[in-house]
UniProtKB/TrEMBL annotation:
Organism: Barrientosiimonas humi
Name of the protein in its database record: Peptide deformylase
Record text on cofactor binding: Binds 1 Fe(2+) ion.
GO terms for MF: metal ion binding; peptide deformylase activity
Gene name in the database record: def
Swiss-Prot/TrEMBL cofactor(s): Fe(2+)
Catalytic-site annotation from UniProt: 131
Binding-site positions, Fe cation: 88, 130, 134
Length: 181
């Protein structure tokens, strides 16, 4: 499947809440394949439909059992918080310790409309939360405390890709995981 351009910070689609998927058809399956191929090529550990300019509640992820996807996710979060490194393919080259719940149960559907439940801790939990945030128009930098956010925005302002017109694909090294979300 063709690799798609990844939208970067500043593109309004990244701040627009995505709509529920109501039709589980060939077009949805193609979107999931495009998300998977683009995520693996980037390389990343997660990619949400809005990052490809598509306002639907769909994301892919790389988990311990390989590549997966979730349509119309709903999350149950643990109370235990951890802070760990997080990056984003839409904000290349920026990795910042970000607080997140340690455990997540994600419920949704496969691209065929079958119910799916994914349970994750640590890195997988972080990925599921990060990608669901994208579907709600939230970026990981929104989860930072004011001082961290100020530093992140300063780093972004001086990034090589900042101010680029239109969507472009950028590779984002992630020192901890080797891949960005």
């Amino acid at each position: 499947m063709p690799i798609q351009p990844i939208r970067l910070l500043g593109d309004p689609v990244l701040r627009t809440p995505a709509v529920e998927v109501t039709t589980f058809d060939r077009e949805l399956r193609q979107l999931v394949r495009d998300l998977e191929d683009t995520m693996l090529d980037a390389p990343g550990v997660g990619l949400a439909a809005p990052q490809l300019g598509v306002g639907l509640r769909v994301f892919t992820y790389l988990g311990p059992d390989g590549v997966g996807h979730l349509v119309n996710p709903r999350l149950e979060l643990s109370g235990e918080q951890i802070c760990g490194p997080e990056g984003c393919l839409s904000i290349p080259d920026v990795v910042i310790d970000t607080p997140r719940p340690f455990r997540t149960v994600a419920r949704g559907f496969s691209m065929y409309g079958e119910p799916v439940t994914i349970e994750g801790t640590d890195r997988l939990a972080r990925c599921l939360q990060h990608e669901t945030d994208h579907l709600d128009g939230i970026l990981f930098i929104d989860r930072l405390d004011p001082e961290q956010r100020r530093l992140a925005l300063k780093e972004i302002r001086f990034a090589e890709w900042a101010g680029q017109p239109g969507p472009i694909v950028r590779q984002s090294p992630h020192p901890t995981y080797g891949r960005a979300m």
